[in-house]
Amino acid sequence: MSYQLSCVVCVPRAIWVQPTTNHSSSKSDRAQRIEYLTKIPRSVNLESLQNGYLFPEISMRESEYAQRNPHARLIRLGIGDTTQPIPDIITSAMAEQALALSTAKGYKGYGPEQGNRELRRAIAETLYQDMQVKENEIFVSDGAQCDISRVQMLLDASLSIALQDPTFPGYADSSVIVGRAGRLNAGNGKYKKIVYMECVAENNFFPNLSKTPRTDLIFFCSPNNPTGSAASRQQLEQLVKFAKANGSIIIYDSAYAAFISDESPKSIFEIPGAKEVAIEISSFSKFAGFTGVRLGWTVVPEELLYANGYPVIRDYDRIVCTCFNGASNIVQAGGLACLSPQGFQALKRTMGYYMENAKILVETFESMGLKVYGGKNGPYVWVHFPGLSSWQVFNQFLEKAAVVTIPGIGFGPAGEGYIRVSAFSHRESILEASRRFTKLI
Amino acid sequence: MSYQLSCVVCVPRAIWVQPTTNHSSSKSDRAQRIEYLTKIPRSVNLESLQNGYLFPEISMRESEYAQRNPHARLIRLGIGDTTQPIPDIITSAMAEQALALSTAKGYKGYGPEQGNRELRRAIAETLYQDMQVKENEIFVSDGAQCDISRVQMLLDASLSIALQDPTFPGYADSSVIVGRAGRLNAGNGKYKKIVYMECVAENNFFPNLSKTPRTDLIFFCSPNNPTGSAASRQQLEQLVKFAKANGSIIIYDSAYAAFISDESPKSIFEIPGAKEVAIEISSFSKFAGFTGVRLGWTVVPEELLYANGYPVIRDYDRIVCTCFNGASNIVQAGGLACLSPQGFQALKRTMGYYMENAKILVETFESMGLKVYGGKNGPYVWVHFPGLSSWQVFNQFLEKAAVVTIPGIGFGPAGEGYIRVSAFSHRESILEASRRFTKLI
C-alpha cells in the first residue's frame, strides 16, 4: 500500500510505503498535522531498501491471523529466537558482576572498546585452538548483526559483493544502506549490483564458483541461515582458493558454528591461508541463548591486508573505537562464564535439546514425503515444496495448522519453494506442530 | 612516524601511520611475514581520518611518562570516565534480571530492537515531561557514541555538516568515516567540507549564527564536551530558528543534560518547534555511571520530515532493525531502575559529588589567576592559558604535577590554548591534583 500527502510534491523515486512499525497514523491525521518540511533529501540508499523487512511482514500476517482466530493456539517456529533458560553458572557470573558495580572496589567504567582482555583470550583459546588466532585479533561486540554493519562501514562503499542465495537478509540490507547494492530489480527480487550465488539442493547448497564472477567482497554464512547446511572442509578450501585468486575478502558468518555435529569446519580459519583473505563474525546469541543479552565478536587477522599493504585490522580498530564503545561489562562477564569448562558443558546440553527438536522436525517432514535439508549441523530445517510459492506454504501452515514458519523467498530468490522451520522452540511446541503438520496430509 | 614495506608499491595517498593500538610489530617482522595482498583498496574515507584518535595519543604520552617515572602517583583527570559505584537499587535490578534468565518463566530472547516498552515509556515520562515526546519516538541503544554512527548511516553521505568548535571528536570522526567531511587540511586542522562554528569565551561559547553558513546537518552538544557550558533557552531558540530558516536537521547531544544546575534546557525539545528540526541523542553513561554498562537512547520525532515529506523516524527504525539488535535486556532493567524515584534520587547524590569536584577544580584554577569556564552545568572544567599551546600545558601538567588532562586542541582548532579537566574522579584525587596545581605557580 502506498499513500501520499496533498501538501507534498512527490519526488518520483520516493515511493511511500506502509510502515512496518507502529509509527503510522491515518492519512487524514498526518495531512492535518504536517506544518513544516526540512530541506533534507531522504538518503538514496534507504530509498533503495526493499519494502518491508522480512520479520515485520511475518509479524503482521501473524497478528492478522490471531485477530481472526482469537482462540487458536499459535506455535511460532519462525524467527530464530532461543527459548531455553541460560545455565545458572552464566547468569550468576553476570549477576555478580552487576552487583560488584555497586562497590568501590568492583566499580568499572569504560573498558577497552575491543573487549576485555580475559574474554578475548578465552575466545581465542577455546574457540580457535590450533588456528593461530591471537587475542588481539578478536574484537568483542554486542552481536553479529551490529558487527555486519561495522564491517560494512569499514569497507569502501564502491566495492562489489556476492552473497549466498538464499541467506540471512541482513547482508543485503546493510549493503543497501551503505550504498553498494544498487537498485532493486522488482522483476527478480535482486539488487542490481549484488552477485547472487545460488545455493540449492541441486548444488548441495554450495555455490558453483566456476560460474561466479569476481567480486571484491564475499559474504558467506556457514552453517547457513536459512538452509541449516554447513560447508565441508573441501568446499571451504575451494572458497578460500577462489577468494585468493580474485584478491577478494570473505566476510564469514559463523554464528551457528557451535551446532555443527560432523567434521565440517567451525571456523573459516581452519582452512590454511584463510587469515589472508577472511574476516569472521560470530555470536553468543544462538549457542548461549544470548539473543536478548547481546554479545558477539569479530576476528580480523593481522595477515589480512589491503592492496597497498595496509593492515585491515588497524582500520577495523578505528571503526570500533569511533563507532562503538565496547560490549557491556556485565555481559562480557557472562561470555567468559560461557567459555569456562562447566559453562560450555551446560550449553552443549541446551544445544543438544534444540538439535533433538530439529531431528523431530526433519522426521516429521520426511514422513510427509517431503525433501528436507538442514537440521543436522544447524538448528534450522529447510523444506522443499516444489511447485508451490513459499508464501503459499507459509499461509497454508498458518491458516491450517496455526504454525508460523518463514517463507524461503524472504532469504533470497533461490529460497522460492522452500520454507524455514526453526528448532529453537520448546519441545512440546515442536511435538504439537509435528502432529498438526502430519494431519495436513 | 611512518614506515613502509619494501615489498609493497606504496599508493601515494596511503601514508602508513604508527598504529594507535597493540597491533603493531617491528618493521623487519612484518616484512618477513607478508606473503599475500588482497586486491581491495583501503576505504578513501578511512584514509582521510586524522592520524591518531585523541585518547590513544594521550594514553601513549601517559605510558611514556609512567615508564620514565615509575614511582610517580599519576592522577587521571583526562578521559571523562565515571568512578563512583552505581547505587544498589540499580545493580540489584540488573542482577535480578540476569538470574531470571536462568528460569523457564523469566527467560527472554530477542526484545524489540527499539527497546523495551517499559523503558521507552519511563524515559518519555521521566525525562521528557511536558515536551510531548512519545514513547515510540524513543529508540533505546547501547550508548550515544554508537547512536552517532547510526544517525550518520541514516543520513545521505552527500549532506553538509556544521560542528561546534571545540566539541567531542566523535562527530567529526564519524563524519569522515561516512564520507561527508572531505580531506583534512593539515595547516589548520580542519576537514575541508565541515563548517566549524567557533565557541570560545569571547562569544560565550555559543556560535555566531549570523556568520554561520547554511549546512544540511548541525551537530550540537549541550552541555558541551569539552567546555562544560550549557546553551541557554534563548540561545537554543536561536539555534532552532536558524535550523528552521535553513531547512537543516539538528543532531543534538544531551549526554550531560542531567548535570545542568541552572535554568538551561535539558533537552532541545523544550524549545517550541524543535520536534520539526531535531534528533536528540542521549546516554545513561555519565549520569548513571553506565560508561561500562552501556545504555543510551535517541529521540526521533514523528514531526521530523525529509524534504519530500517522508518521516525520518521510519528510516531510523529501519536502521535500528537492520544494523542493531537492541540493548541488552539486563542493562535495560538497570535503566528502568535508574528512572525510578529512588534510583534517580540516588543518582542525584552521585552527580552532586562530581559537581562538588568540579567546584573544587574551578576554585583552584581561579585561585591561580586563570580564566575558568564550565564546571557549573557540566562535569568538565575548561581552563584558558592564553599564549600557550594546549599540548604544552598538557605536558607541563603531566611532567610537573603528574596529572593527566586533555589538551583543548584535541576537540577542535578553537580549543587551542585551553585544557579540559574532568571532574569524574575520586574526591581525594581531585584534592591532591588541586594541591599540585597550586604549587606550580
TrEMBL record, chains A, B:
Cite the Aminotransferase class I/classII large domain residue spans from the record: 74-423
InterPro entries reported in the protein's UniProt record: Aminotransferase_I/II_large (IPR004839), DapL/ALD1 (IPR019942), PyrdxlP-dep_Trfase (IPR015424), PyrdxlP-dep_Trfase_major (IPR015421), PyrdxlP-dep_Trfase_small (IPR015422)
Q: Which organism is it from?
A: Phaseolus coccineus
Q: What is this protein identified as?
A: Aminotransferase class I/classII large domain-containing protein
One GO molecular-function annotation for this sequence?
transaminase activity
Q: Which family does it belong to?
A: Belongs to the class-I pyridoxal-phosphate-dependent aminotransferase family. LL-diaminopimelate aminotransferase subfamily.
Keywords assigned: Aminotransferase, Pyridoxal phosphate, Transferase
Q: Which cofactor does it need?
A: pyridoxal 5'-phosphate
